Every structure is written in C-alpha cells, then in structure tokens.
Amino acid sequence: MSHAIRIHEPGGPEKLQWDQVSTPDPKPGEALVRHTAIGLNYIDVYFRNGLYKVPSLPATLGMEAAGVVKAVGEGVTEVKPGDRVAYATAPIGAYAEARAIKADRLVRLPDDIADEAAGAMMLQGLTAWYLLRRTHRVTAGETILVHAAAGGVGLIMCQWAKHLGATVIGTVSTPEKAALARAHGADHIVAAGEDLPARVKEITGGAMLPAVYDSVGRDTFTASLDCLAPFGLMVSFGNASGPVPPVDLGMLAAKGSLFVTRPTLATYTAKREDLLEGARELFGVVASGAVRIVVNQRYKLREAAEAHRALEARETTGSTVLLP
User: Residue limits of the Enoyl reductase (ER) domain (predicted)?
Assistant: First the structure.
C-alpha cells in the first residue's frame, strides 16, 4: 500500500484528500516509479476545480515528478529498475508516493540533475522549450514579451530567451516579483496596472513584437494582441485569470494580419524522439548554468491543499515541489 492525494469531487483546495491506495503493478509497457519529488503546476488547479475534466473519480492529480524505477512490465526497453527518471505527461496521477506510467514517457536523468530540480523542471522546462524553440523559434536580437515572468515557466523562459540572445519584456504583479524576474534575465518590467501596449511601444521604439507568450488568459489577451507587430504571433498557453473568450477573427486582420495559437506540451512531445530532444536541450541549458531551476517552495505531499492555496493566491515564485 501507499498514499496519494486525490479528489472525490471538484472544488477548492479542501477537496484534496490524503488517501491510502494500492501500489500498482506495472502492466506491459509500463514502469513503476517511486516518486522523490513532484511538481506543482497551475494545470493541477484546473483539474481540481473542474475547469478541466478528470477521467473518473476519485482522481489523483499531478502531471510531473521525478523518482526511481522500482519495476518494469513486459516489453519495456526504455528504462530499467534503479534508473533515476522524470516525466511531465498525461494522464494525471503524479500526486502519489508511487505510480505506474508508460515507460516511453519517462526520461532518464543525468547525474548532474538533482531530484528536486527534476521534479520541478520537467513540465515547466519542457513548456519553455517548445514555446521558445518550436512554437516561435526565438533568435538573437529579437524582443519578446513573457507574461507572469516571475512564475515557474516565466523564470525559465526569461533565462533561456536571454541565453538565446533575445531582449525580454516581463510582466509582474508586485515589486518583489519584478526584482526576481530581473534577476533571471528580464530586461524590462511592466507592472500590473501599466498600459502594456504603450510600454511595449516605448521599449521597442514603435517596432512592437514578433511574439507574445501569455499564460494569464482572459485579463491580458486583448492587450497582448496590441503589443504585436504585423504578422506577429500570439501564443496563448494558459488561463490563470480565466479562459479567453471567443475571438473575432476580423480583429486579427485589423490589428495587422496576426497569428494566434493555443499550443500544448502533449502535442509537442507526442513523439518520443521529440520528448527526448526537448529533455536533452533542457538538461543542457540547466547543466551549463544558463538556466537555473528556482525551487522556492517545498511542501510535504500530504500538504498539497496548502500548496494549492498559495499558488492560487499568487504567493509563490519560481517552482514548487511536493515531497512524498
């Protein structure tokens, strides 16, 4: 037997329960992983509160973790017992002391990547990878905008984009978060309440931006569009303030033949070769020191409700891990 954090119905953080569950045996193609560090992400809130539907109830939340392979099912060649591994993938189920998961979704960890960093970096780091290296391939000399620049994904994106030679504009909600974003590569800060398009116009000398990365959603979508240069790309990859309302396509024409995309990590890592390539690049920039994984909050797994409350109250910075 082992334990997991589960919900029996959607709702607030109080719906997260510490349940005793059976430790699964790995089926063919699966590996049993004993977790050492579990990442906390805003998508976990969406599954908890019902914005995203869980497959069935009760449901174990969580999308990413690091751990050690304890056993493998028939036909598994990707990993073996004793391997240190990490993952960031559907289906949900990471808020557990142990879980069985498809072995082809696991990535072996290099010796120079610690478990806590791995548990915190996979979903956020691979998200930063596909956003900066695939969705819009950032190049030296470009200026981009990163919303929520002091969050987990934001801090990684600021550092990585700076490493690629870009100028980074970051949005934040507090002076403390402004300082944190600057310390991790943001060249310019736009605070909550400022006229975002006007500040971007000032910073870019009127040129505006080739790409905006927006994880906030409803509250920032229109202003983000107004920050784009003609043919610019609006990358909407989160809903922290709520879902974006339906978009009038004519507005995209009026604002300069703009592009809009709603990408997901699942699509960009659906092929194992893409998953491994993303992990290789991520591990590379972390090992080189170009990107530092900032774990600023640690909670025991059984304290997941407290972690969710802090995340939703925007009291967290960088990454948060849950420790079994």
Answer: 11-322
- pTM (2 d.p.): 0.90
> How distant, in Å, are the alpha carbons of 85, 120, 126, 163, 289 from that of 156?
21, 11, 10, 11, 12
Q: For residue 205, give the H/E element and its range.
A: none
Domain 140-262 sits in CATH 3.40.1400.10: no
Encode pLDDT of 46-80 as tens digits.
Answer: 999 998 999 999 999 999 999 999 999 999 999 99
H or E element, residue 267? helix 265-268
User: Domain spans of the chain?
Assistant: 2-122+293-323, 140-262
Amino acid at 146: V
Question: Taking a C-beta distance cutoff of 8 angstroms, is the pair 231, 256 a contact?
Answer: yes
Closest CA to 44 of 217, 240, 295, 261: 240
Return the structure tokens found at 259. 């592009």
